[in-house]
């Protein structure tokens, strides 16, 4: 790894050939470590008659089976590579697509996580003069909240740990401490904008200059702002940076100032993009993000399929980095819908709903119909529950997606309670009941 004082790690400025040669050597180190310490991967190598000494480049990864979330749920402790006494922290996945998975972390893993967020916030031009407001949970075994804190601390930036919700508290902190940057799910920003308008706060006269947007896309496939991104920028002229990460990879893909996709950090991760048959796809094809972690001590992963579908881009970025860039997440492979002859991912549905200001919140439910096909019901939280508004929503779907789901209404406050069941840290906007 480069020094933590490097704003852009040296390896990320090298040619693609140099980056690949670097990753070839790191892969050999990782496989040797797994062979020695991971019961799960020891058995995989044996069962598939793989001799790791014959693996020389990242192209040879195709000889290995992929690792899935089911593997982690069924054989979790077989992935552990160190004694339990070395575990310093325990984090869990959100359990969006199943039972949460625990990832124990050693001191070395926490150092790696700190480095990841240091260089990721570096993509967003973070300096020691910034004051960041964290509008997300730092408890409930959530990796990201802790990771952001550690990375920002390394920058020397100020950190305000507000947590999610409460627009009043958020603006109190912005005004009191002169916050310059926010970390938040982007769908919370329209709620802040609404609060500011109701209370006479001039957003563009505040100290806030940028927001790091997590958990939800703010861009279309061509990197233009999507509906949610435009709604924010039209009212609040701040820089928006998108970031993609997961607990399993312990690494983030964060946009630089060019806004042309999240940058890969090759010193932390090998990334592949695979089709449904686990074959690599080209830049003009959407593929499942599949990762091999580098430098993880407690629970490294080999060819782990994240479930997220993206496009990727390999041409050098104008910022100077030569690393692969990740496009917006199109959706999760398990959540793909076949609706009236049209293939959809839930984010396309969200984008239509986000266009309509009178919609305060929503839940998308999917069931299997009598004919074995997917049926979609959108439950809309809005004060306007008229038949004419339902018709307007239906027409918006037909214009954008050519098909329209069933529309039902609920009071926004009741729907808000349903979005956060069992004290979950992420809103359960999509309910797959198939």
Could you write a compact summary of the structure shown?
This protein is of the alpha/beta class and 434 residues long. The protein is built from 11 helices and 21 strands. The strands form 5 sheets. The protein has a 9-stranded mixed β-sheet with strand order 4-3-5-6-7-8-9-14-13, with helices on both faces. It has a 4-stranded antiparallel β-sheet with strand order 10-11-12-15, with helices on one face.
Strand and helix map with partners:
Blueprint: H1 16-37, H2 39-47, H3 69-74, E1 89-92, E2 102-105, H4 107-123, E3 131-134, H5 143-155, E4 158-161, H6 167-177, E5 181-184, H7 189-198, E6 210-214, H8 227-235, E7 239-246, E8 251-255, E9 262-263, E10 269-274, E11 287-293, E12 304-310, E13 312-313, E14 325-326, E15 331-332, E16 337-339, E17 342-344, H9 346-353, E18 361-368, E19 374-381, H10 387-401, E20 406-410, H11 412-419, E21 430-432
Parallel strand pairs: 3-4, 3-5, 5-6, 6-7, 18-21, 19-20
Antiparallel strand pairs: 1-2, 7-8, 8-9, 9-14, 10-11, 11-12, 12-15, 13-14, 16-17, 18-19
Properties at a glance:
9-stranded mixed sheet; alpha/beta; 11 helices; GMP Synthetase, Chain A, domain 3; 22% strand; Rossmann fold; 4-stranded antiparallel sheet; 2 domains; disordered N terminus; single chain; 434 residues
Please, could you describe this protein's structure?
By secondary structure, this protein is of the alpha/beta class. It folds into two domains: 1-331, ANL, N-terminal domain (Rossmann fold, 3-Layer(aba) Sandwich); 336-432, 2-Layer Sandwich (GMP Synthetase, Chain A, domain 3), CATH 3.30.300.30. The protein has helices at 16-37, 39-47, 69-74, 107-123, 143-155, 167-177, 189-198, 227-235, 346-353, 387-401, 412-419; strands at residues 89-92, 102-105, 131-134, 158-161, 181-184, 210-214, 239-246, 251-255, 262-263, 269-274, 287-293, 304-310, 312-313, 325-326, 331-332, 337-339, 342-344, 361-368, 374-381, 406-410, 430-432. Helix 4 (107-123) packs across helix 5 and helix 6 packs across helix 7. The longest helix is centred in the N-terminal third of the chain and has 22 residues, at 16-37.
